[in-house]
Description:
The protein has two domains: about 10-105 and about 295-315, Rossmann fold (3-Layer(aba) Sandwich), CATH 3.40.50; about 105-290, Rossmann fold, CATH 3.40.50. The chain has ten helices and twelve strands. It has helices at about 25-30, 45-50, 90-95, 105-120, 125-130, 160-175, 200-205, 225-230, 250-255, 300-315; strands at about 15-20, 35-40, 55-60, 75-80, 95-100, 155-160, 175-180, 195, 210, 235-240, 265, 285-290. Helix 4 crosses helix 6.
Amino acid sequence: MSESPGFPEKSTTRVHFAHIAYQFDTCFARRTPSVDYFQSRSLEQTAARIGECEALVITGFWRNELLEHAKNLRFIQVAGAGYDAFDLDALSARGIRLANSSGVNKNAVSEHAMGLLLAFSRRLHEARDNQHKRIWRAMMADFSLREDELPGKTLLIYGMGAIGSRLASIARAFDMHVIGIRRSPATDTAAHEMHTPEAFNTLLPRADYVALTCPLTDSTRNLMNAKTFSLMRNDAYFINVARGGCVDESALVDALANGVIKGAGIDTTVIEPLASDSPLWSLQNAIITPHTGGETCRYEENVLDFLEENLDRLWSGRSDLVNQII
């Protein structure tokens, strides 16, 4: 097949990895690549060297102003699922292709959500706190203070994409009853029940655990608020591995502090890092992780799998890319 229009030959392609922490260059080197590559670790370095590459792997460093200096750029592999920071019209006008890495962290985030769920079921956060205090907890007569078991419990998942569907499969392995919510429920079979978003409020009272695995959109912003928290049972737990903006944080604090819900596992917040004076830090029934749900030892390799497949397609003249945006 002929070369893709506007895309260089393999021998003249140079890949630019731009990330403050991820070791893309080190991981790429282990694959013995046949193309040149380099990595920048700051926005300033990225801006200074973006003119040297034909392919760019980037997330947080992207600024649309960089296009003015990207004279050779022909392809961007977003090192994550989100691409709202990119001016698609400007990229198209310059003949730059764009693909994201949707699904790159489906294993990581679904496992993280299940880890938070298990932590509450087995009260691991309390055990860790007691460990630091050198407390050996006595046996409990009060059922509400004991560890629990998952079989027969109901998990309600809002957002049955790749992450939500895998979480459903994991939960089913623990013999949980899984209820899923997505716009087109007929296309998913991982859950025992599927419903549309309109049914969310009526389903909340049934759930022992409520997990958000959805994107942040106009319809999911503040999805969890004072009203929806009040519809949950006071012995139920809330898990958020979606975006912080899906939750009204003041309503979450009130729900936790006043016993409206039993606990919450939070991987994302509206503003990150979470402010040092946020009440969430001191709530005993909250587990907070610093947006690490998708960050694993496999992350770079997963992104590189997408990159290599898309570069091979571009070099062979194919117009279809994996996770193609433009």
